[in-house]
Amino acid sequence: MDRRSVIVSLKALRMELEDCQIDLVAEMPEATLMLSDVCAYLGLSEAETAEVLGQETAKAVEEWAGARMWQPVETETATVPLPEPVAVPV
């Protein structure tokens, strides 16, 4: 499947949901983010992603991304060093 076919297929999926009177941003934000993540995973450009999502949905995803608050992952959360894992005989 070539790049253009993938874009057309993803856009058709979004349009089918909209044709069913489903507001992706208001009613299915998880699906909206998933579709955006699929576009990112496939390496689609911003313009291609906007084409897949539609302008309004792409704008909402951009706003959500700006509002996310990421916390760094700590490498060790215990207050004391953890012992090395040991194999348990079966």
3D structure, described in words:
There is one protein chain. With 90 residues, the chain is mainly alpha-helical. The chain has one domain. The chain has helices at 3-19, 24-27, 29-41, 46-53, 55-67. α1 (3-19) packs parallel to α4 (46-53) and α4 crosses α5 (55-67). The radius of gyration is 20 Å and the shape is elongated. The model has no long low-confidence stretch (mean pLDDT 82).
E-strand count? 0
List the helices and strands in order: HHHHH
Which structural class is indicated by helix and strand composition? mainly alpha
Radius of gyration: 20 Å
Write the SSE topology:
Blueprint: H1 3-19, H2 24-27, H3 29-41, H4 46-53, H5 55-67
Quick structural gist:
The protein is an all-alpha fold.
What labels would you give this structure?
5 helices; 61% helix; elongated
